[in-house]
Fold this sequence. Notes:
By secondary structure, the protein is an alpha/beta fold. The two termini are 25 Å apart. It has helices spanning 13-29, 42-46, 66-76, 92-97, 110-124, 171-177, 220-234, and strands spanning 2-9, 32-39, 54-58, 81-86, 102-105, 130-134, 137-141, 148-152, 155-159, 164-167, 183-187, 190-193, 197-201, 204-207, 212-214. It is elongated, with a radius of gyration of 20 Å. Helix 4 (92-97) links the parallel strand 4 and strand 5 (102-105).
Amino acid sequence: MDTFSLTICDDDKITHEVVAKYLLKFYKKRNVELQLQHFYNAKTLLSHAEDQQTVLMDIDMPETDGIAASEKLTLLNSNVNIIMLTSKRERFKDAFRIGATRFVTKPIELSELYEAVESARKKQRTFPDLLVEVNGRQWKINQKKLYMAEAYRNKTILYLKDRNISVNLTLKNLEARLCPDLFLRVHKSFLVNMTHVADIQDRVITLSNGIRAMVSFRRETDVKKKLFENEAYWG
């Protein structure tokens, strides 16, 4: 069973109860163990900054508000994901400035809450390394850092951020070893990492490092549907 750690920082006890009730139910159906931490003020949260992975942070709290707390939190823990919780949309610019990844408005709409939290969980999730042999040596590749794979004759070219690697694997064999939550077959010759898709126009996908992949005509509808469904997770 997958596990997911989430912290709620809000001075309102009812918010804690509502969020916990619905998220525990949501993740139980998905066979994910949700591990919740509860803090009712920023000072206590910041004393446990290094332990945080994803924080649902209320903006309007006494003493230290959520924006100021988030600034301090990201300085103490650069890997934390922050989801801002607020009834004041005018504070969104402040939240963007401190690097919040998602927003949930009060009163809470469950669909918005699920989308925001699930997005953070996907970003927090880890995947096993891909092991490949290159020139007689074994390479370990982080799946999240693999942008695309392209079939070339009887080999496959792996595209990383700043280098390409040729491996003696067919694209079909490689696809079977990669996580389907990350990778999408868009053409008989291309397999792309959905987390790195920056744009899709007509039948051309552009990845965040500038490389492109063709989408086959028969796969176009399914590819666009899959990318749209995953936008809440990777956007």
